[in-house]
Specification:
- The chain is mainly β.
- It has one helix spanning 12-27; strands at 43-49, 52-58, 64-69, 72-81, 84-88, 97-101, 106-111, 114-119, 121-122.
- A nine-stranded antiparallel β-sheet has the order 8-7-6-5-4-3-2-1-9, with no helix packed on it.
- The longest helix is centred in the first third of the chain and has 16 residues, at 12-27.
- The protein is elongated.
Length: 123
């Protein structure tokens, strides 16, 4: 028993449907929010940490930053991780570990196994 050979011909209507579907799927992600790198512009993030104001000064094109807290200025580095930036600095038991979300509008503090989230504003 033999199987009849089918032609490789695709109708113009089939091509149009395939192209439309491909363009639709390609454009689906265009509605997702675009997140620019935190160092895409110079900016100052203002947050509250332990009830005191905290400022993080980020220079365009650099993941080195200045952290101003309780009258002290610390040089810190920002390490990009999957969905946040880890703030690398000398350990301070009053501060603990800090990270910023990708949008730069939340500061996450991990101290004594407790996580605190504070909102930040961009200047």
């Amino acid at each position: 028993m033999s199987i009849p050979f089918k032609s490789a011909y695709v109708s113009p209507k089939g091509v149009l449907i395939c192209l439309t579907l491909a363009l639709t799927l390609w454009g689906c992600d265009s509605q997702a929010p675009k997140i620019a790198a935190i160092d895409s512009h110079s900016k100052i993030l203002t947050c509250t940490l332990n009830g005191s104001p905290l400022k993080i000064v980020i220079t365009k094109g650099s993941l080195d930053a200045g952290l101003l807290y309780e009258g002290k200025e610390l040089k810190v580095n920002l390490l990009e991780v999957k969905d946040f930036y880890q703030i690398l600095m000398r350990f301070d038991p009053q501060i603990g570990q800090l990270k910023i979300n990708k949008l730069g509008n939340e500061l996450i503090q991990l101290k004594s196994d407790n996580e605190q989230i504070a909102t930040c504003a961009t200047e």
